[in-house]
C-alpha cells in the first residue's frame, strides 16, 4: 500500500538481532500466511542466527560431508526447509534478510526478484569498496568466478515471498567446510571483512543493506 503523500510503498521492518533459526522460520511462516490472506502488509525480518546449516529443496546427500548427529555435536544443527537451493550455512558472522513481500506490488517475475535481491548486495558491497558480481546460471553474489560472498534462496507462494539472502560480513569460511555450499563444488567462501578497505561490523553492514533494499524495492519504513 502506498502512502497518500508518497509514491513509495510501506514496509514494516523487524530487527530480530541474533535469533534461533527455528524461531525466525516460525515468524516467517506466520507473517507469510497473514500476507497471503491479506491481513498483513509487506515486511522484512532482519537478523543473524547462531550457527546452523539449512537444506533447501535441491540438497543431495553428497552435499553434506558429516552426519546430522556429528554436526549437532559440533554445535551446528541441520534444518530442512522449503526454500529453493541446496545446503548452506547461517551464522552470527552474517547479515540475513527475510523479505515477506507481495510481488504484485512490484513485478510478478521470479527472475526479477532474485536479481533485485542480488543488486541490494552488490550495491552494498560497492559502498564498502568491494566489487560484487553475478555469475550466469548461479544465484547469489560473487567477487570473482570462484569466490562467493552472499547466498540466496527463496520460496514464492501466491507471489508472496519467504526466505531471502545472507551476506558474509565477518570471516566464516571454516563454517562451510562440512558442506558443499549450494552444491557448487570447489568454491571459496569469502567475507566483506576480508576484502573491504574499511572496518566492517554486522550492524553497520545491515544498516547499509537496509538502505539499499528500501531504495531498490521503492519502500519506506
Task: Explain the overall architecture.
The chain has 221 residues and is α/β, with parallel strands linked by helices. The protein has one domain (9-220): BirA Bifunctional Protein, domain 2. It contains 5 helices and 12 strands. The chain has helices at 21-37, 68-73, 110-127, 192-195, 202-216; strands at 9-10, 12-18, 43-48, 52-55, 78-80, 87-90, 94-100, 141-142, 147-157, 160-168, 188-189, 219-220. Strands 2, 3, 7, 8, 9, 10 and 11 form a 7-stranded mixed β-sheet that branches. Strands 5-4-6 form a 3-stranded mixed β-sheet. A hairpin with a 2-residue loop joins strand 9 and strand 10. The longest helix has 18 residues, at 110-127. It is globular. The chain starts with 8 loop residues before the first strand and ends with a strand. Residues 1-5 have low confidence and may be disordered.
Sequence-ordered SSE layout with sheet pairings:
Layout: E1 9-10, E2 12-18, H1 21-37, E3 43-48, E4 52-55, H2 68-73, E5 78-80, E6 87-90, E7 94-100, H3 110-127, E8 141-142, E9 147-157, E10 160-168, E11 188-189, H4 192-195, H5 202-216, E12 219-220
Parallel strand pairs: 1-12, 2-3, 4-5, 9-11
Antiparallel strand pairs: 3-7, 4-6, 7-10, 8-9, 9-10
Helix pairs in contact: 3-5
